[in-house]
Amino acid sequence: MEKLKNVWLLLLLLVGLAACSDDDDNVQVTLSTREVNLEVTGGTTTFTVQTVGDWTIETDGQSWYTVSPQQGTGTTEVTVTAEASGEVASRSANLVVRSGSALATLVVTQTGTENPADPSNQTIKVRAKGGDREIVLPANEGYEVTIPTDADWVKLKEKKSGSVVLTLAANEAGDHYRTAAVTVSKTDGSHLATLNLSQSWRNVEPGELLFQEVFLTSNLIAETGKTDSRNMEQYFILTNNTDEELEIGGVAFAESAITTLSTTMTNQKWEPDNRDNVAAIQSLYVIPKDRGKHTLAARESVLIVNNAQNYKATNATSFDLTGADFEWYNESTVSSMMDVDNPDVPNMDVWISNSMTIYILNVQMNHGFVLVSLPADLTAATFVDNEAYLWSGTRSWQVASTGRDFSTKFNYQAVPNDWVIDAVVIGTKEGFAYNPFGSALDAGFTYCAVNSDDTSRYGKAVRRKANTDGTLVDTNNSTNDFEPAVAASLAK
Questions:
Q1: The domain 121-199: what is its CATH number?
Q2: Suppose 327 and one of 308, 394, 421, 428 were both cysteines; which one would form an S-S bond, judging by CB atoms 3.0 to 4.6 Å apart?
Q3: Containing H/E element for 213?
């Protein structure tokens, strides 16, 4: 009888251990899978927790992934999100799901960067900001790294098993790329790889940061049926069209000095016509060049406004722009034409302004706009005073009503087309006459109005189209790339 009692006690003990076992699919904690995998580029994946009661998830404290939700009741889908990995090796994490005394574990793995197909010849492109760059190499007992003597901007930071880490200084010398060929050898001196480094002079390349929406028509005030001509709600929405974070300090917007429409002039010509080389501008407003301070995450947007005010408080058809990321502000000395400043929103740096009082985007919709990446060592003073950034010549035209010919000298402030990372030309549908930029910057135009008398333009914007994968359309042709005359997206 005593032996039978002991057997029953042993069986009860084994059942109790099984209920808490991590390897057993017990009725208290069931997972749809015991392992989830994520690509090196990051992203999300899911698994299902099934319990008969409340449950919680304990993570191992690593910061490269997140789990949501981390507690619940009954059957629930859980999402695991990982950031992109820059590590050579794969990485993993353990999640513990508990319900009462029962538990189950799940392993999260993320692959590392791949070994290149031809490790003996690698081209590595780096942004102006520099930083550490880990380069995958064939496995070897050790490496000898040779950096050219004239490439003092490249330093060896670390040798690992299967990779080396180089530290690249920031490129702050003008608008020139710089290159270096770094060689890697085995410890016996035999050649293993050549690393061809190419560092840009900018942190944002053409096509990476785009005008997503431009709103310049303002809104009609219900009581007056007119716009506020001195305090207009105008804005740009700029979007990061890449899968990585961009440093946007030093990026500027500029308005063209050449108009797209003239009702009094025809046959307008410029001698020399330098539009294929430079963009003539009459304003230049710059996101402050505070290194590392102004960044924009992948696919995210930044809102730049005329005045970061709550217009909706006094006009129900308008917007609240107090949440803007930047505003352009001019210090006026004319008491009747003072700009409005929101101290909680950073101001853009004013390099050029076509106004001594307040600056308003062209509401007649006959100008173009460019986004410009400025060299790190360039200042407002050196830009304005340098004749290299002037386009001078003779402009000629005919008066439409009389056919008489006229000409005048011009001196346009201009930025090289090589600095332009995006452009949009805006006109009227029926009145577009001149492209203020070279066709390589923008081969078309978009609009908010049929003609200059079209009062339906108020409250309308131009908005860039999106591809099926969510990226923005960018063919350097605003006719193809933008939806014209759409309701402003901030109208809510």
A1: 2.60.40.10
A2: 308
A3: strand 209-215
CA atoms of 261 and 366, how far apart (whole Å): 6
The backbone region for 12, taken as left when phi is positive above 0, alpha when psi lies in -120 to 50, beta otherwise, is: alpha
> Taking Cα atoms as reference points, which of 413, 402, 406, 481 lies closest to residue 443?
481
Q: Which structure tokens are listed for 44?
A: 């999300």
Q: What is the DSSP letter of 3?
A: H
CB 280 within 8 A of CB 416: no
CA 447 to mean position of chain CA atoms: 24
Instruction: List, in order, residues 6 or more apart from 421 with CB less than 8 Å away.
Output: 202, 204, 205, 206, 207, 208, 209, 251, 371, 372, 373
Contact 410, 287 (CB under 8 A): no
What is the C-alpha separation between 438 and 430, in angstroms, rounded?
A: 21
Q: Would you put residue 403 in left (φ > 0), alpha (ψ -120 to 50) or beta?
A: left
DSSP string, 257-311: SS-S--SSEEEEEEES--TTTEEEES-EEE----TTTSEE-TT-EEEEES---BG
Give the dihedral of Cα atoms 423, 427, 431, 433; nearest 10 deg: -20
- Whether the predicted model's global pTM rises above the 0.85 cut: no
Q: Report the C-alpha dihedral over residues 131, 136, 142, 147, rounded to 10 degrees.
A: -50
Give me the tens of pLDDT residue by residue for the chain, a chain 492 residues long.
Answer: 444 444 444 444 444 434 444 444 455 789 999 998 988 888 899 999 999 889 899 998 888 899 999 999 989 999 999 888 866 667 888 999 998 888 888 899 888 776 555 556 788 999 999 999 999 888 788 899 999 999 999 999 999 988 999 999 999 989 999 999 999 998 888 888 999 999 999 999 999 999 999 999 999 888 888 888 778 899 999 999 999 999 999 999 999 999 998 777 788 899 999 999 999 999 999 999 987 789 999 999 999 999 999 999 989 889 999 999 999 999 888 887 888 899 999 999 999 998 888 888 888 789 999 999 999 999 999 999 999 999 999 999 998 888 899 999 999 999 999 999 999 999 999 989 999 999 999 999 999 999 888 889 999 999 999 999 999 999 999 999 999 999 999 987
Phi first, then psi: give them for residue 408, nearest 5 degrees.
-155, 155
Amino acid residing at 447: Y
Contact 128/173 with Cβ under 8 angstroms? Answer: no
Sequence ranges of the chain with CATH classification 2.60.40.10:
20-110, 121-199
Given a contact cutoff of 8 angstroms between Cβ atoms, the answer to whether 186 and 159 are in contact is: no
Rounded Cα–Cα distance for residues 206 and 425 (Å): 16
What is the third-level CATH fold of 20-110? Immunoglobulin-like (2.60.40)
